Amino acid sequence: MAREEEFPVVYSNLAKITHVALEFLVDFKRLAPENRAVDTAPTLVRIVMHPVVAKAFRDALSHNVGKYEEQYGEIPAPPKGAQPEVH
User: Fold this and answer.
1) Strand arrangement, sheet containing 23-29
2) pLDDT tens digits for range 34-54
């Protein structure tokens, strides 16, 4: 089993979420000054999840966002065009 420090750290400021019958696909992307177009932003990594795992991830993320906001205050809504793409 690989140690945690063997995994790369990737910064993403955009996500594109799609699904098919048996999988959810989350493409993490990065907008940068040299590439500001959402449609052409490079995909850094794609995570493929079974629907059960995707739902558990949604719930875990929601729980952790709630805990974060309890400690640090409400997270503001992202600027228009910066939300994950839903298809």
Assistant:
1) 43-49, 23-29, 14-20, 85-86
2) 888 878 899 999 999 999 999
